[in-house]
Amino acid sequence: xxxxxxxxxxxxxxxxxxxxxxxxxxxxxxxxxxxxxxxxxxxxxxxxxxxxxxxxxxxxxxxxxxxxxxxxxxxxxxxxxxxxxxxxxxxxxxxxxxxxxxxxxxxxxxxxxxxxxxxxxxxxxxxxxxxxxxxxxxxxxxxxxxxxxxxxxxxxxxxxxxxxxxxxxxxxxxxxxxxxxxxxxxxxxxxxxxxxxxxxxxxxxxxxxxxxxxxxxxxxxxxxxxxxxxxxxxxxxxxxxxxxxxxxxxxxxxxxxxxxxxxxxxxxxxxxxxxxxxxxxxxxxxxxxxxxx
Length: 293
Ligand SMILES: Nc1nc2c(ncn2[C@@H]2O[C@H](COP(=O)(O)OP(=O)(O)OP(=O)(O)O)[C@@H](O)[C@H]2O)c(=O)[nH]1
Ligand SMILES: [Mg+2]
Ligand SMILES: [Zn+2]
Description:
- The protein has eight helices and 13 strands.
- It is of the alpha/beta class.
- Helix 2 links the parallel strand 8 and strand 9 (106-112).
């Protein structure tokens, strides 16, 4: 028996990276019966059959898993938000942050396309960057258009598995290409001309990048809070999470309750108003979702 990590799933085969190379493995009935589908990112045990072929025999417990892209054991997510085109949206960024926090994945915020940011809007973007840094998030501003401005980004990829999240067109593929030109990931215009639907079965693959692994089919498209309970939502805003013990009432939802430390912090300017507004937006969204039985 050998051990390894699934780095690619394609046409019924799982490609397992092991100490001595990549094994092409088949799954087994076992997985189908248990309703566990092996995912890219899974740590597995496998039996070696021929030269570099084998059978998966066990999937090790996961620390987390994503649905879109289907991938397990993710350590870090880069959330790309473009400064312009599409315009910078803290609401969307916060949506990604909450989802990523809920999966126990470390977020890194990347503000892209700063090369085309008009001078007069720089201050506003810098202020947002600072607001997120004060919460404790890592924030980087980049340009993936030549001459690249991507200093300091490499170091984040030193270990573990990273995914690249963000709205379509923000420059996810361009950033990866700027970091590693050999990847030659298709960007915007090309994939559009291929038409819709052609890429529905695009496979997920982990590729080596600066010592770590990165999913080269960027995705993270499911942005509903289906798996998040109302009581949890505050835990995914670090600045709310760290104050909840100071609210007068246990189980305070920081909404209508009196003597709420969170609302007080908003009033004092210690919590950004826009973050609190987004908290309420998500809170109401979860509250109004149909109960599932
Ligand atoms: N000026 C400028 N343009 C950029 C930058 N990054 C990406 N772009 C352009 O923005 C468009 C979209 O870039 P992509 O890298 O394809 O975006 P994506 O996030 O991978 O988009 P999807 O694959 O649809 O999710 C392309 O025309 C890129 O050339 C940047 O840093 N500066
Ligand atoms: Mg892309
Ligand atoms: Zn409160």
